[in-house]
TrEMBL record, chains A, B:
<dbReference type="InterPro" id="IPR036388">
    <property type="entry name" value="WH-like_DNA-bd_sf"/>
</dbReference>
<dbReference type="Pfam" id="PF01638">
    <property type="entry name" value="HxlR"/>
</dbReference>
<dbReference type="InterPro" id="IPR036390">
    <property type="entry name" value="WH_DNA-bd_sf"/>
</dbReference>
<dbReference type="InterPro" id="IPR002577">
    <property type="entry name" value="HTH_HxlR"/>
</dbReference>
<protein>
    <submittedName>
        <fullName>Uncharacterized protein</fullName>
    </submittedName>
</protein>
Length: 171, 171
DNA sequence: CTGAATCCTTAGTGATACTG
DNA sequence: CAGTATCACTAAGGATTCAG
């Protein structure tokens, strides 16, 4: 027997509540909506493309090494370096992940790859124009993080203190 | 029997190669290095903090819903909305993920949570000052993605055409 | 040197059902 | 309404080994 205590809406607070539900939808161009709004599925279409650009690109930038790799490459002379240099600059990255990340970034056109048919193989990676163009927005995020990191840490500590659950975070 | 064909460095191309290895390290403040450089481990210290702020925050922004949620909240009047409104705005998110993402963002201090002890429970979430402050850098990334999305798609297509492997991407 | 191939572990995510 | 709890699945990531 389900008590109806928590039905759709109680008499006194019908439909629209304290906070207005504000159909502000029309105030935004529906172009933006494509990126943020409802229709944003992660399913791939017939071509194999993701259908949510924002989410897909974001998750690329959010993956473990892409940003670090781009920033590392940006610090190299000519925004250019070879495989082993990158490996040295990011000691914690596994060879497998370095290869894979480079490959994905190349696929997206952010870096270019040049292979030299020498006896000890040499491969050089370089930020493309597209890759360079993302540096500024990227650096703004980095700057923001640098500037607010301690604030965030503090926030976490007080939060964890007030919520002394076993384990925090996802799951 | 290992042939020594690929030893450290071949005679004619010793140590420093075509591309100079440029110890440009000194040209960068070592503060930056903390974020990008070698010492960047993902291990947690005794307190449970990640030791690589950049990576950690980036992966938060890169997770499936954080950015979408922040942007959605930013579009609400007063950068404020209740749980069910957010759920409606992001129909594809599961309740579990909405709860978890909101919780993480609250923990980081990007959003605040206010609970009302009413009979049908009401909880309102709002971007904090910190949360609002990340909107601009975030929007720059979004803008960049919007502006370069088709370029990236094109790049991927040509790449996949030239590399007709079974499946691309990681793994 | 620069990868590719395998194997394996686990974190992220979704579906579903239950609760105050 | 706003969550929690469980379970199950997948994909991301690491370690290691093999190869041109």
């Amino acid at each position: 027997m389900k008590l109806d205590t928590y039905s759709q809406s109680t008499p006194e607070v019908a439909e629209t509540n304290t906070i207005n539900t504000a159909k502000t939808a029309t105030t935004e161009q529906s172009g933006k909506d494509f990126f943020v709004q409802n229709t944003c599925k992660d399913k791939k279409d017939s071509e194999g493309h993701g259908v949510c650009p924002l989410r897909e690109l974001l998750s690329r930038l959010g993956d473990k090494w892409s940003v670090l790799l781009i920033l590392t490459l940006a610090r190299m002379p000519g925004e250019r370096a070879r495989f082993s240099e990158l490996k040295r600059s990011l000691p914690d990255i596994s060879q497998r992940m370095l290869t894979a990340t480079l490959r994905n970034l190349e696929r997206d056109g952010l870096i270019s790859r040049e292979m030299f048919a020498e006896v000890p193989p040499r491969v050089e990676y370089q930020l493309t124009e597209l890759g360079v163009s993302i540096l500024n927005p990227m650096r703004e995020i980095v700057t923001w993080i640098e500037g607010n990191w301690t604030t965030i840490i503090t926030s976490r500590e007080t939060f964890d203190k007030k919520n002394p659950k076993e384990e925090n975070g996802l799951q």
